[in-house]
Design goal:
43% of the residues lie in helices and 15% in strands.
Length: 394
């Protein structure tokens, strides 16, 4: 199924059923890291990973304030009811857990953004907004995109029968393509993180980032001088807009969830194989210079995809590793060169395993250094003529 076909199907589902079949079908796909562990910190700062101890702490502290009891859960989906029962006096925590183990079924999907057909493609796992917030914001998002046929039906109950959604779909695509202009006044560190990652990639990436601007941001990001701080903020917005408008961003799963750190089990990854076909179909529609998959989880996804008779094949090279040294601390990073074959065409790409690292999100200098390393590996790999498996990080 092509990307356009999937978008049409999802929007038809949302219009006619009130929720998206594809998002419902992926329930139970993801889990938090360290399956089965519960971390509880009480007002004294006590922590435990023992489940029975956690439940007792929850029961004994059920009357204290949310500020005094901070609960984070990393758990199996089938254990949700137990924890929610003990969290009935703390609805905020319960909602947070739901956000981490399910997808938004009543929100607009986000398959792609930026320039379709761009020379540079960055593929993320999924939109990182919370499930509850995404579902609640549906009407706002429809209005932003001038999707008035859907808005009248879902918000006001105006049913026009077999409505033609063509205009709504056209407006949906227009908004996503030009999101960088619409969002030009909002600061977002995740978007800026992409700009620094791509800082040292060559001009044929066509993202058109300014080395001088990004250097100025790094050198002056912590300044207290008002005029300098204002200039930094202005340059951040300029570079953010470029990275949103001049590359194509794709999402493996187009449905929002707050966390996507690991899979429940490999068998459930099979549900994603049709989405991989859709990604590859979109990527191979146009000539590309650089294709970057931005999470180590793509290694697992592609392994399952290869064994489930998809329309393509992904072949892996040895993982390339790199250490970033700063202020006496070492950050280990890595990337995986890959070759993708799809419908009689082949491209070389890279999996940026460390891209979502919590050590990198706002560390612009580190992200730029990591991006430079990934480009150098990518560049050597595209020139490498040997057999699959022989490429080395030298």
């Amino acid at each position: 199924m092509t990307l356009d076909d999937r978008i049409k199907k999802d929007l038809d589902d949302l219009y006619n059923k009130g929720e998206i079949d594809g998002a419902v079908a992926l329930d139970g796909l993801v889990q938090e890291e360290n399956e089965g562990l519960y971390w509880v910190g009480d007002a004294k700062g006590t922590f435990t990973t023992d489940e029975k101890t956690v439940i007792e702490l929850l029961k004994s502290n059920s009357g204290i304030s949310k500020e005094q009891l901070a609960v984070q859960a990393q758990m199996k989906v089938d254990g949700l009811e137990i924890l929610l029962e003990n969290l009935k006096n703390n609805k905020g925590c319960a909602d947070n857990i739901k956000d981490k183990i399910s997808f938004a079924t009543r929100a607009l999907p986000v398959y792609t953004g930026g320039k379709r057909g761009a020379k540079t493609v960055m593929v993320m796992l999924n939109p990182g907004k919370g499930v509850k917030a995404s579902n609640n914001d549906l009407y706002i998002e429809l209005k932003k995109r001038s999707m008035f046929t859907m808005l009248e039906k879902l918000c006001c109950g105006v049913n026009s029968g077999n409505a033609n959604l063509d205009e709504d779909i056209e407006n949906y695509h227009y908004f996503n393509t030009n999101y960088g202009d619409w969002d030009c006044n909002r600061h977002d560190n995740f978007d800026l993180k992409q700009a620094f990652f791509l800082r040292d990639w060559p001009k044929d990436s066509e993202v058109s980032l300014s080395q001088d601007n990004l250097k100025y941001i790094i050198e002056n990001n912590k300044t207290e001088k008002k005029e300098v701080k204002e200039e930094v903020q202005k340059l951040k917005l300029e570079e953010k807009r470029k990275v949103l408008m001049n590359k194509q961003q794709l999402e493996l799963v187009p449905y929002a969830s707050r966390s996507f750190s690991s899979f429940a089990d490999k068998d459930k990854i099979k549900k994603l194989c049709p989405y991989v076909d859709t990604l590859l179909d979109e990527i191979f529609l146009q000539p590309r210079e650089y294709v970057i998959f931005c999470s180590r989880l793509f290694n697992e996804v592609f392994e399952v995809y290869n064994s489930n008779n998809g329309n393509g094949e992904v072949r892996f090279e040895t993982v390339c590793e790199y250490k970033i040294e700063e202020a006496g601390k070492t950050l280990s990073t890595s990337c995986t060169p890959i070759t993708i074959s799809f419908r009689n065409k082949t491209i070389k790409a890279i999996i940026a395993n460390t891209f979502p690292s919590q050590a990198l999100p706002n560390a612009y200098k580190k992200m730029a250094e990591y991006g430079k390393f990934c480009y150098e590996v990518y560049d050597r790999y595209t020139k490498f003529q040997g057999p699959i498996g022989d490429f080395k990080n030298e």
